[in-house]
Amino acid sequence: MSTAPASGSLPVYRWRLAPDGYATRRQLRAAGLRPGGQQVAATLERPRRRRGPLVAHLYRIDRAKPVRPMTAGRWAALAKANAARRICPECCRDAGYVIPPSLGMCPACAFPDNAPEGASWNTSPHTAR
User: 106, 108, 104: which is closest to 119 by C-alpha?
Assistant: First the structure.
């Protein structure tokens, strides 16, 4: 399901000239609100040289709903998901940081023989010395 109707039916405002009562997702979030399932009400365009304009979707503030509060279960699920991003699937140890998705494993497992002897970047807590 698309969040925006056909672009021809939306009002388009120039950068910084949108009327009161409209806000972007980030502005709604900063105010403790969310779009709440409403369709995009207008668009905001910022012209650029040599490229197409930057476009921001605007939502009506009077139709926005309050942000749902974080429950204990949501906090637990978020903590579990963040912890899973730190565990290396190869050596099953906590890397101490979020493992790069491009590698899919900690750098020590991805490049075990690439480090020169005594290199400071290869002094990971889970490499065998």
Answer: 108
* Predicted structure pTM score: 0.61
**Per-residue pLDDT reduced to its tens digit, 80-99:** 999 999 999 988 888 889 99
How many angstroms separate the CA atoms of 61 and 100, rounded? 38
- For residue 3, what are the contacts with CB-CB under 8 A and spacing of at least 6? 39, 40, 57
